[in-house]
Design goal:
- By secondary structure, the chain is of the alpha/beta class.
- The protein folds into 3 domains: 107 residues, 3-Layer(aba) Sandwich (Rossmann fold); 185 residues, Beta-Lactamase (2-Layer Sandwich); 247 residues, Rossmann fold (3-Layer(aba) Sandwich), CATH 3.40.50.300.
- 39% of the residues lie in helices and 19% in strands.
- The protein contains 20 helices and 18 strands.
- The strands form 3 sheets. The chain has a 9-stranded mixed beta sheet with strand order 12-11-13-14-10-15-16-17-18, with helices on both faces.
Length: 586
């Protein structure tokens, strides 16, 4: 790789190196030489650091020697052997002939020698000159060969573009591609067994038209999250615990193609200029992808799977054991009576699942506007407008942020606004909406406890760039937010609501809270599962008095640890806007 000490040249060199590694060229095969080095250009050491490669040789800028060689029509390494530029060339040659060249040849050597004794399929692949990466097993070599031959036999990119959105055409393309792959595998597989051939056909078909190794994991209902760290390492969260998956991608190149296949239908892009992206799958699963050069060890993909069957309150209490019936009944009362709710928790704690569950308590006759980075909320109501952000285009223009959508939502006559997550200055607009006639709105924030959630909201409001004093922001939070629900991913992988707190108001410079319910952890059982107890603090929120003035009777036993819990059932979409009585009341 020969580059010059200019920013543009170094950037193009990085792009080319990234493309070669994505196409499975070994990193060790790439060597770096800096040409035309001078005191006015970039330092070779800085170039090597930027490209994460040691500089093999430095050729100095020497216009006089180079110009003289051109006039004499004789290479300067022959006519001017004592010049600095010639000495630099000789130095590079010595390094190469000193063993490095042989090492590079060994690195790039075709796999025919490596797999000579493995079987006829490998010898056939090598004979046709297919480029197979080093250090791959015979099975992967067959898959790579079939991939190469499939690309020659079919224009898959055009086929997928022509069939997009037409189920019948997509099915026909899949059948045709499957037939071609089957023929190629039969030709290449040699002595492989029937089951192994069938598995290779499925894997190649998934990588050609689907999501490759992700297809199998997406079909497993026990897998809740998929984390891809390069093509060889795929981790999954299964039953609350993170473990490595046995499935892998054939190469980083195929992984990159899968990422492009995910983002293309959404009108988004991922390349060297925009090396990361948020997207979603057809089923609503949330996807984040990062590629080289930001992801050093190959493309990184994180998928938060979309639950096919929405969680209802009964499942949340009885199956997940994430709350008690009293807590869920209390939240139902709060949501139906239009309290503004903030759901707080860490990454992967289950904030979106809880937001989905609570949204089921919203009466069906209200107009809802949902705003998200990647649409994943599953509201059961009919009168819902779903809005999704949009990233900037290639020119860096056209971006639509959550803040933009919150401002626009205020003009859409919503009864409630539900924001998937507040992570920037949009928090200030959300609080303004909560305070100006959009009671019952909900959102989520990243925080580890209710007190931190208030601090987080203050920080996000400051990011709005309005230069508001801290006191004004605190007054806004105290006046807009009624309830903070804290959820946490426990050490055993389970999720639990560990605190429900009422925001009482502002005292001095502190937004005060009163905890109504809490989870007290007591230890572990023999299977290392969390042992604990949900408790009511015995304190009754101030807003209960306001509810009672409206004629809503709420039994005080709801806030007691002694009374039997009410029966929790799935909330109907057409829940009454006014509560007349509560289970356990008169």
């Amino acid at each position: 790789m020969v580059t010059t000490p200019e920013v543009l040249a170094v950037n193009q060199t990085m792009r080319l190196m990234t493309e070669l590694m994505a196409a499975s060229f070994p990193n060790d095969m790439l060597q770096l030489i800096v040409n035309k080095a001078s005191a006015t250009g970039l330092a070779p050491a800085a170039i090597g650091q930027s490209l994460r490669k040691p500089v093999l040789g430095i050729i100095p800028q020497d216009d006089a020697t180079a110009g003289g060689a051109l006039q004499r029509s004789a290479p300067f390494v022959v006519s001017m052997t004592k010049s600095p530029i010639s000495a630099a060339h000789f130095d590079v040659v010595r390094k190469l002939t000193g063993g490095l060249l042989q090492q590079l040849k060994a690195t790039a050597r075709p796999q025919a020698l490596k797999f000579k004794k493995e079987g006829p399929a490998d010898n056939a692949a090598a004979a046709r000159g297919n480029k197979i990466p080093t250090n791959v097993d015979p099975r992967t070599a067959v898959k790579l060969t079939v991939h190469n031959e499939l690309i020659k036999a079919m224009d898959l990119k055009k086929g997928m573009t022509d069939t997009q959105g037409d189920p019948q055409k997509e099915a026909d393309l899949k059948r045709k591609t499957n037939a071609v792959i089957s023929q190629l595998v039969d030709k290449e597989a040699g002595s492989m067994g029937r089951d192994e051939r069938a598995q290779i056909i499925k894997e190649v078909l998934d990588e050609a038209l689907g999501l490759g190794a992700l297809e199998e994991l997406l079909e497993d209902p026990a897998v809740t999250e998929i984390m891809v760290n390069g093509h060889k390492r795929i981790y999954i969260e299964k039953n609350g615990l993170v473990q490595i998956s046995p499935v892998t991608f054939t190469s980083n190149f195929h992984l990159r193609k899968v990422i492009e296949r995910i983002v293309h239908p959404l009108g988004r892009q991922i390349n060297e200029s925009v090396p990361y992206v948020d997207a979603r799958l057809k089923d609503g699963s949330r996807v984040n992808a990062v590629i080289e050069p930001l992801a050093i060890d190959g493309p990184a993909v994180t998928i938060r799977k979309f639950r096919k069957t929405p969680v209802n309150p009964e499942t949340y209490v009885n199956e997940f054991k994430a709350a008690t019936a009293n807590m869920m009944e209390f939240l139902r009362i709060c949501v139906q009576n239009k309290l503004n709710v903030i759901i707080s928790g860490g990454t992967g704690s289950g904030k979106t699942t809880l937001l989905n569950t609570l949204s089921g308590f919203i009466p069906a006759n209200e107009r809802l506007v949902t705003i998200e980075d990647a649409a994943e909320l599953q509201l059961k109501q009919d009168h819902v407008v779903r809005l999704e952000t949009r990233p900037a285009n290639m020119e860096g223009a056209g971006a639509v942020t959550i803040r933009d959508l919150v401002k626009n939502a205020l003009r859409m006559r919503p009864d409630r606004i539900v924001v998937g997550e507040c992570r920037d200055g949009a928090a200030l607009d959300m609080l303004s909406a909560m305070s100006t006639g959009h009671d019952g709105s909900m959102t989520t924030v990243h925080a580890n406890n209710p007190k931190e959630a208030i601090g987080r909201l203050e920080t996000l409001c400051m990011m709005a760039g309005m230069d508001l004093p801290g006191k004004a922001i605190q007054e806004q939070i105290a006046g807009a937010v009624n309830l903070i629900v804290q959820i946490q991913r426990m050490s055993d992988g389970s999720r639990k609501i560990i605190s429900i707190s009422e925001v009482q108001g502002l005292q001095g410079e502190i937004v005060t809270q009163q905890e109504v319910f809490r989870f007290v952890e007591k230890g572990f059982d023999k299977n290392r599962k969390i042992i604990g107890q949900f408790q009511a603090t015995g304190l009754i929120p101030k807003f209960i008095e306001k509810f009672e003035k409206r004629g809503l009777i709420i039994p005080k036993t709801l806030f007691s640890n002694e009374a039997p819990p009410p029966q929790v059932a799935a909330a109907p979409a057409a829940a009454a806007p006014e509560l007349k009585k509560v289970a356990g009341g008169k």
